[in-house]
Amino acid sequence: MPLKKKGLVGKSLDQAIRHGVAHKLELSTHHSVLPNPQNRLTLDANKRDMLGIPYPKVWYSIDEYTRKSARRTVEMYNDIFKAMGATEITYIPDANNPLMFAAQDHPMGGVLMGDDPNTSVCDRDCRSHEQRNLYLASSAVFVNTGTANPTLTVAALALRIADTVRDELKRA
Ligand SMILES: Cc1cc2nc3c(=O)[nH]c(=O)nc-3n(C[C@H](O)[C@H](O)[C@H](O)COP(=O)(O)OP(=O)(O)OC[C@H]3O[C@@H](n4cnc5c(N)ncnc54)[C@H](O)[C@@H]3O)c2cc1C
């Protein structure tokens, strides 16, 4: 129970915080999601922002493979909690539902990389198939991914794009 709700103040609050910090363990699990063509980003046909750019529409569902992983994780957590003699167990984001997924803050995909302009937006150099002077340095080019962490790969792609542009300018 949150300490505030227990009505603790002053020294007893301080002691409870110190005790909690020293005895708390947080476990977190990232589940893989299988590639699914139905999970995608499209443009909203009706809604546009103030610049007239269509809103994105996100299609995303969590498959049985991922749910199975979550169920197995909860079983393993329960074994761990039992072995530790844990007394207060809270699941985030929903304390009453251990199988509720939390968002990971890592949107990726949307302008996929690929050789075929019919099924991808940019090529292996992150260069737009349609606009040859446009490079996409972004996690949006990822075709598939784990849940974390994308940004170092984005930085690596950006450095590679810089090399490509430099080489092109030298040849021009
Ligand atoms: C809470 C949170 C925590 C995160 N923690 C981590 C972490 O610990 N490690 C990690 O690796 N990653 C982390 N990430 C993910 C990381 O922030 C992203 O992967 C990364 O920012 C993606 O870079 P990007 O350049 O593809 O997109 P963005 O950083 O989103 O850049 C897109 C840019 O395009 C601009 N833009 C959009 N539309 C237009 C337009 N029409 N015209 C002009 N400009 C436009 C936006 O303003 C923005 O500046 C975290 C993300 C969040 C939200």
TrEMBL record:
One GO MF annotation is: oxidoreductase activity, acting on CH-OH group of donors
Keywords from the named record: FAD, Flavoprotein, Oxidoreductase
Q: Does the keyword Oxidoreductase apply?
A: yes
Q: Which cofactor does it need?
A: FAD
Keyword Transmembrane tagged: no
Where's the Glucose-methanol-choline oxidoreductase C-terminal domain?
A: 35-158
Pfam families annotated for this entry? GMC_oxred_C
The domain of life for this entry's organism is Bacteria
Family matches, as PANTHER family? PYRANOSE 2-OXIDASE
Which family does the entry's similarity section mention? Belongs to the GMC oxidoreductase family.
How is this protein named in the record? Answer: Glucose-methanol-choline (GMC) oxidoreductase:NAD binding site
What phylogenetic lineage does the species belong to? Bacteria, Pseudomonadati, Pseudomonadota, Betaproteobacteria, Burkholderiales
